[in-house]
Design a protein that fits this description.
The chain has about 110 residues and is mainly α. It has helices at about 1-20, 25-40, 45-75, 80-114. Helix 1 crosses helix 2 (about 25-40). Bound molecules: adenosine-5'-triphosphate. Adenosine-5'-triphosphate (ATP) binds near residues 24, 80, 88, 89 and 92.
């Protein structure tokens, strides 16, 4: 129980740090805050609502991982280097793909609803 609590504290520190320092994370947190009531209002059944919320959480989680990779790169190798650029581009591509997934799910749910 204590280990679980300590793990949660680490995650909470990460959430707060990310929200304080990263504009992209703040933007996606705002999208989640808007998406939560929108998903509930949109209806379409329980699984549609879950898919809408999961897509936003997935996107936010990927943004945190992308930020972690960027920070690690900048800390370990502050100078510019082609391989650091590739690593950051790969992490960015991962985050981008989750944004495409979220857009697909939201557009499909909206088309289906209206
Ligand atoms: N040290 C570096 N060496 C080489 N290229 C770099 C370096 N730092 C950044 N880049 C290039 O600039 C891009 C943007 O990196 P940056 O660290 O500024 O992230 P960002 O602007 O927050 O991008 P995003 O959040 O869209 O992934 C990287 O994807 C990479 O192509």
């Amino acid at each position: 129980m204590t280990a679980l609590y300590l793990a949660f504290l680490n995650s909470w520190r990460g959430l707060v740090f990310g929200a304080r320092t990263e504009r992209a994370i703040r933007l996606e947190l705002a999208l989640l805050a808007l998406g939560l009531p929108a998903a509930l209002l949109l209806g379409g059944g329980l699984w549609v609502r879950v898919a809408l919320l999961v897509s936003l959480l997935l996107m936010l989680g990927a943004e945190f991982l992308n930020t972690a990779v960027e920070k690690l790169c900048d800390h370990l190798h502050p100078d510019r280097h082609a391989r650091i650029g590739i690593v950051k581009d790969l992490a960015s591509a991962g985050a981008f793909l989750t944004q495409v997934i979220a857009a697909l799910i939201w557009v499909t749910a909206l088309i289906d609803r209206f």
